[in-house]
Amino acid sequence: QVQLVESGGGLVQTGGSLRLSCAASGRNFSTSAMGWFRQAPGKEREFVAAIHWSGSSTYYADSVKGRFTISRDSAKNTLYLQMNSLKPEDTAVYYCAADSRKYYSGLYRRTSEYNYWGQGTQVTVSS
Known about the structure:
Number of strands: 11
Distance between the termini: 40 Å
Strand content: over 45%
Number of helices: 0
Largest sheet: 7 strands, mixed
Oligomer: single chain
Helix content: under 10%
Order of helices and strands: EEEEEEEEEEE
Shape: globular
Radius of gyration: 14 Å
């Protein structure tokens, strides 16, 4: 059974930092694209960041570019999201996602490109 388990969320003040982790189990995602999405209350789930299956490229939403960094540790089958200079508008539930396809370059910003999802971790940024 494939599982994605996020951790690292919490309450932080404006300008602070958090590092989210997504531990995968049940299969190896080292050759699959993975991403982070977030959903604020009353809003649709939106793209935050993604990493190419090869790890050679990363992609970011304009709203987080320069502040967030996505990375992966293939040996640990774990995805990370380093979030710096956090703002109140970053408050949301953050979800980890993985594509079931291997060696596939898809449309990373679309939720439909991902087959596996974690349960989410809450990030709250106070002003």
